[in-house]
Amino acid sequence: MTSESKRDVASTQRTSKVSSEVIESILVGRVDGSLLRDLDQDGTRHGWAPNWLIDATEVSGFTADSVSNGVRVLESGRSRGLKRIVIITKLPAARMAARTIGLSAAIELHVADDRSSAMELIRRPLRG
Fold it and tell me: CATH number, domain at 38?
């Protein structure tokens, strides 16, 4: 599965723990199963937080295995305390895939157009 194309760049991600409440990842390029497994390892290494902010504004597309691997990452995070994920993207296909992953993993998931909107969502109280 692919999305609208931006220029092809090498796929990278950088994850850091912003606070005890937020872990943040920045994704660039094409999202695939390998990149998502790296996210899971980094989330575990840094220590999952209740909120995960993913900046996917530089994502150019994703592969077919992204959804199944994304579900595994969220299930792994959820088992370690992750309660909500907020993804910043305007890419329609990425928004749809993110919502599918969130429903499949039974985790609160929001999609925002920009960082300001994403931070507003992070500041809201967590559901149940």
Answer: 3.30.750.24
